[in-house]
Amino acid sequence: MRQAERIVVVGAGQAGATLAQRLRDLGYDGALTLIGSEPYLPYQRPPLSKAYLLGDMDLDGLTLRPQSFYDDLNIEVQTGRAVTAIEKTEKLVSIGDETLPYDHLALVTGSDPLRLPEALGGHLAGVHVVRGLSDIDALEPEIVEGRKALIVGGGYIGLEAAAVCAKRGLDVTLIEAAPRILQRVAARETSNYFRALHESHGVKLLENSRLAHFVGDERVTGALLDDGIMLDADFVICGIGVRPSTGLAEAAGLDIDNGIATNVFAQTSVPNIWAAGDCASFLYNGDRIRLESVGNAIDQAKIVAENIVASLKGETLKPYVAKPWFWSDQFDVKLQIAGLNRGYDRIVTRDSGAGVMSFWYYRGDQLIAIDAMNDPRAYMVGKRLIEAGKTADPNVVRDASTDLKSLMKR
Hints:
There is one protein chain. The protein is α/β, with parallel strands linked by helices. It has three domains: 7-112 and 242-313, FAD/NAD(P)-binding domain, CATH 3.50.50; 115-238, FAD/NAD(P)-binding domain (3-Layer(bba) Sandwich), CATH 3.50.50; 332-409, 2-Layer Sandwich (Enolase-like, domain 1). It contains eleven helices and 26 strands. It has a five-stranded parallel β-sheet with strand order 3-2-1-7-19, with helices on one face. A five-stranded parallel β-sheet has the order 9-16-10-11-12, with helices on one face. Helix 1 runs parallel beside helix 9. The radius of gyration is 23 Å and the shape is globular. The relative contact order is 0.12.
């Protein structure tokens, strides 16, 4: 292998840490620098809005690996450092007044939370987002029993935040502009399941309710809805979505299309610059998509590492084949999702009682996705079928008394 002068990884999240470790596992022993803008070693994000906010996990539990791990692998980790520019012709990245050369550059910059504009009061103190560790640390002092929490957005982040607040004894109201929670990402059946779950724990859900603006001078004290309803609030959590962090790539002249556009090998429009994770878009069944999930971030980062090493050796690159899967923890329910439900035309329900349930998405006769609530067996069987391109007999799925494993033999 011809050793590169340096491989630089921009973004010290789960994808960045995975990519750097995988390069070493594959035998790359050249200079390797991992740069993150946050002042922390790479850490897990999913527990932030769950176990960490609940107080069930501390920073050590969040951190993926200790400093000694990176030292042992000779991975230079620069935390609290923001890359400000990429010079793709000279193959340099700028970090403040300094420059760092690279032969291969990997962009794993993640995504940024959408914030409500100042005209709606998004700038007021007490209005929070849930994305990074500093966001949660700023939010945690607000989570005091008996206070009024207003959640804006009925997607998974908003619902997870609502569940944490309710479990800690707050008075929780969630508003969703769409006719139902989870409308963008799940079937009506899944929305109904989680609506009932939240309402059973005292969360007030206001669907088809649009925010007119927040109320307050310097700090938020409430919210006015566009139908004239006034809601009191001690603080607000906005969970209205994210946007891919593409500013650095765009300024460098890389192609942007629903994120940093990559080919099947995870290369950007500049072959020695790669992208993975939330910031990267790729082709999946003919559509250009992004997958905002830990699973995708890890799998795509591994492919980037493998293809960088292959390119150094002059070997054939390996295409990235996405295997979408997601999860969400709310109250005592673990939701596990496999596949993408785009274009579904039928839902088959499997109800095993006591809240154990799964919804199977079909396009025609083909199984394309599954939502499983407290049903890991249904999730695993569905996931394996989807990844193998197989389908599932709806009669077997629907009958809770039948063994799902029989589907694997068909």
